[in-house]
Design a protein that fits this description.
The chain is 65% helix and 0% strand. The protein folds into 2 domains: 2-70; 92-134. Helix 1 (2-29) packs antiparallel against helix 2 (36-63). By secondary structure, the protein is mainly alpha-helical. The protein has helices at residues 2-29, 36-63, 92-109, 113-129. The protein contains 4 helices and no strands. InterPro entries: Cyt_c_oxidase_su4_actinobac (IPR021050).
Amino acid sequence: MRANKNLFWILFVFFILADAAYTIWSVIYYNGVVEWVGTVSIGLTGIMSAFIAFYLGKVMSSQGGVLPEDRADANIEDGDAELGHFSPWSWWPILLAFAVGICFLGVAAGLWLVPIGMAFVAVTLVGWVYEYYRGNFGH
């Protein structure tokens, strides 16, 4: 995690320097007028890199130790931890992606599709959340 944190701080410095260079270059090229879209987007990319680096630093300090990925003497099996519970047989994430796709298609093609997509999103979210409360896996 230390390498990731350092990488994002390096990206922050790079994007801030690139933002300054872009702003100066646009002022020179456009005769004193700043090109705001590129200036703001590159600056926000740098700020987002700083947010991620800060978050990773806080997480690393709150864990109170070094991750196995950061130790030179660590084995591969040292990083085998419980990552969560995932359902390899579940179709709900695929159906949810399809429903969200309908919503985005509605925004692009016609707004009448958005309510239909939102209805599918609601059904698939409920199905995904409650899939362990019915059938063979019900509690």
